[in-house]
Amino acid sequence: MPNGLLSSINNIVVLMLENRSFDHMLGFLYANSGNVSPIGDPFEGLTGTESNPDNNGVAVPVSQIQATDPIAYYMPGADPGEGYSATNSQLFGGVDAPVPAIATNRGFVTDFNYTLGWEGPENWSILPGTTANGIMGIFTPAMLPVLSGLASGYAVCDQWFASVPTETLPNRAFVCAATSQGHMNDKTKKYTCPTIFGLLSNNNISWAIYGYVDPPLTRLEFPDTTDADDSHFGLFTDFQAAAANGTLPAYTFLEPSWDAAGNSQHPNYNVALGEQLIHDVYYALYNGPNWSQTLLIITYDEHGGCYDHVPPPLGAVPPDKSRGEDSFDFTRFGPRVPTVLVSPLIAAGTVFRVGTNAMPLDHTSILKTVETRWNLPSLTARDGAALDVGAVLTLATPRTDDPLAGVVVPVATVQNPADAARPSHLQEVHAELVSQLPVPDGKGGVHHTVPPLKTSSDYRAYIRARTSEWKASRKAKAAASHTP
Q: Which of 43, 103, 394, 423 is the S-S candidate for 35 at Cβ 3.0 to 4.6 Å?
């Protein structure tokens, strides 16, 4: 059974954004107070003296991203390296991890320099003025008043790590299933393992996954979500309505918009749009009737190649007996990612972390929190060993103040200078998965040819149309099965 005040939480909501490190987004949160929060909690932030060497060995210090910078909300100006080899280069200075894998976090500038060299503007969006030194750019609280306001107004986790030191899909698999089944890159887009959603269904506990303006990608990545009833899925407007009506399920998982003009905050998309999304999620809950019993967890799937100064810890528990790609044994975590815990039962200025010798917090701590709250078994050995975040709830009487009162959501001063017409990587993933959905072709089969897709709009239209066709075929099949 849940300990302490976690039992009073009846709605857990998770917003997982994209590809930003802790330092990059929140490293200067308490810089003006000597990295100590207002209630005296120590904070593992930046001092401003941190640096990384460039290719000539010259130290490149961390710098503050200024609102006057031409591409301020699009920093670091390009998509840094984010796979397993790139992460190793950032942490260890080479594509292979040493033994033991003790990171120095000294390879961010050199790896970004390498990445800019191979990306090339013909295949990737590199904004004018982008240099390798830009990877040391850090957003200030003034630049991110919504994320920073919630981090200081409720709780920030300054020692929360990605589950694996690699890119998006394996980390998103961990937050849903506590395993990536050995996979270490985005080449694998579907998994065959059970998820927290199936576990909740098996125990008659409600849940939902909401896309932003498109059907949720997460649904198509696991059998127990793909096969689930359509009532578990919706768009952001559906989430807002459920929050306003007090009908949110026990567990809610939110996706951003994946396109280059969207609000996922993936580099080099508009970070200010993500600030608006965080604001809208918060106020949907804050203004709803169930606010006093809600816990919102805002996190990021992986660091995305952005600078962080804290070496990821060792001692992670392998989730299962899956053989890891790239000879990875799943015994170390990925770099730190921003994670903010929001609830009226949390004291303002909290820096939440676990003990020195305890299992570090990672994405499976979300699963552990859900499992602890509703007395559910673990999915794998990883979430079995994880610690929940229930101890962050210390106030028996819910707060009534609003830390974001008066905060103005930032707006980028320039339109997205990237080629927003290009489909994003996750739009391509989404399109591939919807193309595999079994939609009858009218000829007794399920054969399907993907139409030509070139632009982001092409992909969006195809994803929506194909999903609608699939849902309609599911309803028709269900109706036919009930016909006498």
A: 43
CB 177 within 8 A of CB 190: no
Q: Residue 441 and residue 333: Cα distance in Å, rounded? A: 45
- The residue ranges of DSSP E strands in 99-151, in sequence order, are 137-138
Torsion, CA 106, CA 110, CA 114, CA 117, rounded to 10: 150
Considering the entire predicted model, what is its pTM? Answer: 0.97
Q: Which of 123, 144, 49 is nearest to 407 (CA)?
A: 144
Q: Structure tokens of 447?
A: 């054969």
**pLDDT tens-digit readout, 57-69:** 999 999 999 999 9
CATH superfamily of 4-51+141-392: Alkaline Phosphatase, subunit A (3.40.720.10)
| pLDDT band, very low/low/confident/very high, at 2 (cuts 50, 70, 90) | low
Nearest Cα to 323, choosing from 190, 180, 187?
A: 180
Coil/strand/helix, residue 299: strand
Domain residue extents for the chain: 4-51+141-392, 425-481
Residue indicated by tokens 């390009």: 78
45, 32 contact by CB (below 8 A)? no
The per-residue pLDDT for range 113-122, each reduced to its tens digit, is: 999 998 766 5
What is the β-pairing status of strands 160-161 and 361-362? parallel
